[in-house]
Amino acid sequence: MRILVCVKRVPAPGSRINITSDALNVDTAHLGFTTSPHEECAVEEAAQLVELHGGSVCVLTVGPPEAEEQLRYAASVGANEFVLIPNDTGHDWDPQRTSHVISEAIVTLEASGEPFDLILFGNESADSGGYQIGVRVAVNLGRGVVNGIKGIEVLENSVTASREVDGGNEVYSVPLPAVLGVKEGINLPRYPTMKGRLASKKAEITFTTIESEPGAQEKVRLHQPEEKISETKILGDGPDAANAIVDLLDELGVL
Predict the structure, then answer these.
(1) Fold for domain 2-207?
(2) In this structure, what are the phi and psi dihedrals at residue 7, rounded to the nearest 5 degrees?
């Protein structure tokens, strides 16, 4: 099998997010970055499928030059080929433009080698959460797509993909080549071994520039919700707190 996984460089979960003064972008001055969690699981799933069926894993990202870090992480857990498409601003493009350049890159990669049997995306990115890129790329390429995937089984000419719904699961049979949006929890991503980390430093990364026009979507502003400050009040210590606790429970309507 030849599998392509598209990943995104995002702020590390739990980071304090600040907005730039123009309210158009996240201030990255003091942020750590990682691979979007859904896509981390997509890389792991691709590695497991290749271990089972043979083949190779190509990982592609659109982002700043620093996104090379995320590609080298993918190399440390079993990916074989790496493509970085630099954007011209260091910030996110809109989904239309991003999906266009990814689609063009896939066409170029397939023209120079074998077609991809499977293209995996994260169900949505951890920062913008747009749910659009995988679907748009699939439409551009004329391939079947299913999102929200928590299980994948590859057959001879098709892939069986399942996703959770209220009260059970939906199971889809999609002819290959296909595009799937993977959800976190489909697997438990492995930790890179020391051997994998050393090998990742030698991984050859292809930087590919693809000309593209801005998409039709325009970011107006980012809104940062007001922080809620929680206060802790000590009602007392030992038996002396009993009366205060009873009064509080009465106030809450528990008694």
Answers:
(1) Rossmann fold (3.40.50)
(2) -125, 165
All structural domains of the chain with their residue ranges: 2-207
**Is residue 214 predicted with pLDDT exceeding 90?**
no
pTM: 0.83
Helix (H) or strand (E) holding 56: strand 56-63
Extract the tokens encoding 188: 């438990």
Give which of 147, 130, 145, 60 is closest to 96, Cα–Cα: 130
One-character DSSP codes across 106-157: HHHHHHSSPPPSEEEEESS-SSS----HHHHHHHHHT-EEEEEE-EEEE-SS
User: Please, which residues have CB within 8 angstroms of residue 54's CB and are 6 or more apart in sequence?
Assistant: 1
Number of helices followed by number of strands (H, E) in the chain? 6, 14
The predicted-structure confidence for 85-108, as pLDDT tens digits, reads as follows 998 665 568 889 999 999 999 999
